[in-house]
Amino acid sequence: MTSKRDIFVKTIATRRSVYSQDRLEQILSESIQAKEKEPG
């Protein structure tokens, strides 16, 4: 039996995995830009 909470947790889990992937790419690009801005 699937409760509403189980469905909710699964939805959050899938959203979080998608979000974290986007966030990782954003952090990566930001860190690369920061390195380019740094002198030396």
Commentary on this structure:
- The mean pLDDT is about 85.
- The protein is mainly α and about 40 residues long.
- The protein has one helix and no strands.
- The longest helix is centred in the middle third of the chain and has 34 residues.
- About 85% of the residues lie in helices and about 0% in strands.
- It has one domain.
- The relative contact order is 0.09.
Features:
single chain; rod-shaped; 85% helix; mainly alpha; 40 residues
Layout of helices and strands, plus pairs?
Blueprint lengths: L3 H34 L3
Shape: rod-shaped
* Biggest sheet character: none
Radius of gyration (Å) = 17 Å
What integer is the average pLDDT?
Answer: 84
Query: Secondary-structure element sequence?
Result: H
Can you tell me the residue ranges where pLDDT is under 50 for at least 5 consecutive residues? Answer: none
What is the structure about, briefly put?
This protein has 40 residues and is mainly alpha-helical. It has 1 helix and no strands. The chain is rod-shaped.
